């Protein structure tokens, strides 16, 4: 029961962060990306500055050593891909490419079927509607 409550809370945090990243045009892309990083770090119980400063294979290793719950994997991937888009928008293409590579490594390691296309605005709105149901 406590595990389910915890997972639901984490999932709601991801959904809210993704919605803010998509819809909050008052904040800069860099601020919205930082918000997503913090939610990722909180969800996996690893400092996001440490986790996301490493190469893709090291991100997977850190997740495997930590509290990564595969049930939140798709949310982590959507957040990383959304962050990559925001970093591109902010002119930080190299960092955006790193986030995409990190997401790809996580998807491969955990056999998750989430891609960069899953965070285009229409796909995200459909995802949000699905989460409400």
Written account of the structure:
- With 133 residues, this protein is mostly helical.
- The chain has 7 helices and no strands.
- The protein is globular.
- The model has no long low-confidence stretch (mean pLDDT 89).
Q: In percent, how much strand structure appears in the residues?
A: under 5%
Query: Rough shape?
Result: globular
Largest sheet: none
Q: Fraction of residues in helices? A: over 70%
| Number of helical elements | 7
Order of helices and strands: HHHHHHH
Number of individual domains? 1
Q: What's the mean pLDDT score?
A: 89
Distance between the amino and carboxyl termini:
21 Å
Features:
mainly alpha, 133 residues, 7 helices
Brief overview:
With about 130 residues, the chain is mostly helical. The chain has 7 helices and no strands.
Topology:
Blueprint: H1 2-23, H2 29-44, H3 48-51, H4 56-65, H5 73-89, H6 93-110, H7 121-132
Helix pairs in contact: 1-2, 1-5, 1-7, 2-5, 4-6, 5-6
């Amino acid at each position: 029961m406590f595990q389910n409550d915890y997972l639901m809370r984490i999932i709601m945090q991801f959904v809210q962060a993704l919605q803010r990243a998509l819809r909050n045009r008052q904040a800069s892309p860099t601020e919205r990306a930082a918000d997503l990083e913090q939610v990722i770090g909180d969800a996996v119980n690893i400092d996001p500055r440490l986790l996301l400063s490493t190469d893709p294979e090291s991100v997977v290793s850190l997740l495997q050593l930590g509290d990564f719950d595969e049930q939140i994997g798709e949310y982590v991937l959507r957040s990383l891909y959304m962050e990559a888009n925001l970093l591109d928008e902010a002119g930080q293409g190299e960092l955006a490419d790193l986030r995409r590579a990190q997401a790809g490594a996580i998807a491969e390691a955990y056999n998750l079927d989430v891609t960069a296309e899953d965070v285009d605005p229409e796909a995200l709105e459909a995802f949000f509607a699905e989460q409400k149901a």
